[in-house]
Amino acid sequence: MDKMQDAIEILKEYNQEHIIRILEKLDREKQEELIKQIQTIDFHQITELYNNTKKEIEFKESKIEPLKYLDKAKLTDCQRKKFDELGEKTVKAGEYAVVTMAGGQGTRLGHSGPKGTFKLDVYGKGKYLFEILIENLKEANQKYGITIPWYVMTSRENNHETVEFLEKNNYFGYDKDFVTIFTQSELPLVDQEGKLLIGKDFKIKEASDGNGGTYSSLRASGCLANMKERGIKWIFIGSVDNALLKMVDVTLLGMAISKNVQIASKSVVKANPHEKVGVFCKMNGHPKVIEYSELPKRMAEQRDRNGELKYGESHIMCNLYTIEAIEKVSKEPLIYHSAFKKNSYIDEDGKEVIPEEPNSYKFESFIFDAFEFFDDIAILRGKREDDFAPVKNCEGVDSPKTAKELYEKFWNK
Predict the structure, then answer these.
(1) Assigned domain for 21 exists
(2) Is 33 a member of any domain?
(3) At residue 183, what are phi and psi to the nearest 5 degrees?
(4) Which of 278, 283, 319, 312 is nearest to 295 (CA)?
(5) Contact at 8 Å (CB) between 108 and 390?
(6) What sections of 319-391 are H helices per DSSP?
(7) Domain assignment of residue 11, yes or no
(8) Which residue range is the domain that position 270 belongs to?
(9) What are the tens digits of pLDDT across the range 80-122?
(10) At what angle do helices 2-13 and 17-25 cross, to 10 degrees?
């Protein structure tokens, strides 16, 4: 009864009385589950995040400048040789690990399971996204005579299905001793009035808190400690949905080592000024990526003297860090962005409501928001046809059809 009263007081303080009314109607077991969850939620943080949805995002453009990069296709033979040798040496020494962010569902693709279990229709019989990534790793292992530790970040929603899928497929031949699966953290969803949503299980509805949660999840799960035990010095982090992702690019790694930076990333040139990708820049002297939804139209269209987009280097989720960099940002709070989405919920009468329009805010931190904690970043410009075949939409741009074409064209070449 004391815990129940404490929960009610918290809910009253933060104007969540609708949950009290639901709580009072539940049986003892369900009440205990919900009360336990209420005790773990930072209501002050959620209120602040909700209040921020009412504020306009402003950039003082005078403090923003383009970021320098090296174009992989234009490296001299001497540069390329130097970078490759440095990168190969680190990989061969067993000092390199790979993290795959695989917490998403394939809903937008019309696929009911985790996105990594989506089958891309390549070469007739097709390949799963996880299978494509594992082939990429196995090729690097064979080339450098090593087995690279692979860490897979799932969400609470898809963890069980992901583990089951990889087990069933025997990790597509990857050594299970070098695979570690961990889950990312979550935050509650709130409606347009700041009220928390209740799900079908009569618990507060939560969703993964964005790919920026990767850093703290690596630390909280023990994966960071595991990497240290293995002697890992460099960590690559990429997403599961890029069919052309090069997770072991020794040129990128060698460039980062040569430039003595703690973070590096690969970019591709934006397809057009309004392509829905984040772009690299420097803000207040620190590296930054501005998300497409937050980039002012005038900045998106700006061109330099050569006619190239001034802010045209796309962030393609192809990031590299020293282990010290991961350790540093895993302890830093990142800023959160809000996304307005459709989410079903249970009303006070216990009935499920399935909205036809977006009705709630999901709060996410972005992986690139951590770049601001560093003075510099090394950017290597790659090629879209070699490095970027995302599988995000059911049809049209960045769809299975475009990814299939890019994948087959690359491997035929």
Answers:
(1) no
(2) no
(3) -110, 155
(4) 278
(5) no
(6) 323-329, 384-387
(7) no
(8) 41-412
(9) 999 999 999 999 999 999 999 999 989 889 999 999 999 999 9
(10) 150
- The pair of structure tokens assigned to 147 is 């087995």
Extended beta strands in 102-193, E state: 119-120, 127-128, 150-154, 179-183, 186-188, 190-191
Residue 128: inside a domain, yes or no?
yes
- Record the pTM: 0.88
Among candidate residues 103, 95, 169, the one with its CA nearest the CA of residue 322: 95
Tell me if 271 sits within 8 A of 390, measured CB to CB.
Answer: no
Q: What φ, ψ does residue 391 adopt, rounded to 5°? A: -115, 90
Helix, strand, or coil here: 226?
helix
Q: Residue 292, CB half-sphere, CA atoms under 13 Å: how many?
A: 14
The number of folded domains in the chain is 1
Q: What is the rounded CA–CA span in Å between residue 225 and residue 323?
A: 10
Structure tokens at 366: 């972005």
Closest CA to 208 of 161, 156, 159: 156
**Domain containing residue 398: CATH number:** 3.90.550.10
CB-count exposure of residue 1 (10 Å: 0-12, 13-18, 19+): exposed
- Give me the residues of the chain with pLDDT under 70, please: 56-62
Residues in a beta bridge with 346? 352
